[in-house]
Amino acid sequence: xxxxxxxxxxxxxxxxxxxxxxxxxxxxxxxxxxxxxxxxxxxxxxxxxxxxxxxxxxxxxxxxxxxxxxxxxxxxxxxxxxxxx
Length: 85
Known about the structure:
It is a single chain. By secondary structure, the protein is an all-alpha fold. Helices cover 44% and strands 0% of the residues. The longest helix is centred in the middle third of the chain and has 15 residues. It is globular, with a radius of gyration of 15 Å. The protein starts with a helix and ends in a 22-residue tail after the last helix. The relative contact order is 0.09. The model has no long low-confidence stretch (mean pLDDT 75).
């Protein structure tokens, strides 16, 4: 618990970033509810599809520069929630 608190304090100090520390069974239920199977995901919401695509591409460009980061589907890439690997 102490480690989670310390990690949460650091991560939550970044604006717009949230954390979720879970047990494996809880994580599986969360996956079923949200449709996200990866350990880390970025969800971008909005009504303007052109803006969403642009913001997704921007996020992908930033993430792809992080050493050791790769997507679960053969590389980091922008995908819609309905895409499957």
